[in-house]
Design a protein that fits this description.
single chain, 191 residues, alpha/beta, Translation Initiation Factor IF3, Hypothetical Protein Ychn, Chain: A, 2 domains, five-stranded parallel β-sheet, 6 helices, 25% strand, DsrEFH-like
Amino acid sequence: MHIIDCNGLKCPTPVINTKKYFDSIEEGSATIIVDNEVAKNNIVKLCESNGYKSDVKNKENNFEITIVKENCGCEVMDFSQTTCIVVASDKLGEGDDTLGTTLMKSYLFALSESDNLPTNLVFMNGGVKLVVNNSSCLESILKLNERGVEITSCGTCLDFFQIKDQLAVGEISNMYAIVDLMNKSNNTIKL
């Protein structure tokens, strides 16, 4: 079995190395070794989005992810009706910050009540401040998540603002996975 040792590699390198290997083969398997939970979660998400089977084992402070890719000759996912909204700030619009904060809270509340929901909400840069404990928008984002909207936050951004430990909803991802998500979406909207 092919081994991909990603110990000590920073995000998003483990998921990129995994993707490159599986893109290079029609079918087969490999074991990926990572030393942190975020890398493990990102690789498992990659497997889920591509229809690969995965099995995770925790071994001596490492995660071993065994992945099997089978050639079924079918398209795994239909992305024709997906919408990704990228939230790049904790304020909506430019001008007055107080107004921008109020508008963002109002927008996310209205979105959570809407009949037409996006597939994904991606939070990056200052937008990650909205998905943490004590965010004035947290209730609306939790409701969106409960209604099936995937919530993804940039791990580098959470680290930059030193709020990763305060994340209250969704999953931490990396720029490679975020770019892939945006590229696969039928519509991408940036706030």
